[in-house]
UniProtKB/TrEMBL annotation:
Protein name: AB hydrolase-1 domain-containing protein
Domain AB hydrolase-1: 126-300
Originating species: Penicilliopsis zonata CBS 506.65
Pfam family, one: Abhydrolase_6
Transmembrane segments: 12-35
Amino acid sequence: MAGLLASVVKYASVSVAISVALYAALLGLLTTASFQSHVVYLHSIQMTWFKDLNVPETFGFLRNQVTPFSLRTADGERLYAWHVLPIELYRKHELELVAEPVGFVPDITSRHAFRLLRDDPDARLVIHMHGAGGTVGSGYRVPNYRALSAGQPGKIHVLTFDYRGFGRSTGIPSESGLILDAMTVLDWAMNVAGIPPSRILIFGQSMGTAVSVAVANHLALQFPPVTLAGIVLVAPFVDVPTLVSTYRVAGTIPILSPLARFPLLFNYLHRFIRDKWLTKDRIAQYVRAHEANAEKYRLTIIHAEDDYDIPWHHTPMVFWHAVNASVPAGISYEDLEMRKLESKIDLGAAGSVMEWRTDHGVIREEILKTGLHDVVMGYPIVTMAVMRSFESTDPFFTS
């Protein structure tokens, strides 16, 4: 019996030692730029097995409902993109669209779908910024495109793209690189497709929320400022240093959370985080800029309580940073929580809604009971958020 116990203890000790060694090796690798990039962006994970992105029909779209094309960034990278037509508009022009060749298009301006976007003064455009990992065709992103245009299926187009290093896009991802990518797409939308900012909405999910806020803030700080129809963020995070404190890769492998009991080591390792994605600071700058310029803005933040990838408590923090920036004297997190007790709308199983209004803007927090990290993207709550944003710039949009 004693021998058996000794063997079990020895086996357990060896297992613990191996686990500690592997974790230490992981931490060491995380201090290197290349490995850290793969962990943060997961860009090598395609999640579109046995399907060709240049054949969108295999993802459930109608023939030529999606136009695959590419954009060139200022630093020479090529971004792979899809232009997704709303279903009712497609129905009206089905014969012309079906008659065109399928597949990747070297010059999208030659296509009928592009002209339907450019030449319609009522057209709206949602620029979709996806999360880490995968491509434009991965997972729940395809149902998301349908939800984005469902409110006005004759008017709302979707433009989605893969950041550098993702899918068929060239390059290596970085914070500055992804921001440049998003700016490239917005520039194309405004200057090639000719869609004014008031008819463009940015939608971001997960990692895409950080990119969305960074780009919207950049536009707001320009002179003159560029004001969009709105921003919709699903499952945002405060910043990367805060996120890695609880984040688990693929929902299972912890990053820094086991070290939370050792503040000195924990804080030391934070120094090695290259791309910090400080959403909390950028969203505050975005709100302050719009308030100072007396420009109208609409910001919607959505999160599900059962999100196991990015804990939902990030959203109340992001919401507070935005609201605090809208108040000249500021408001504490605790005071805002007290205001929520008075103003928050309890929707039962559907969650809750809190809306903060100023003379210039609306900041809306929507917390769902269920929806996980990705499934929520196809929910009607996304459709409603898009419609509220477009209606805020044009009350007659739905008529």
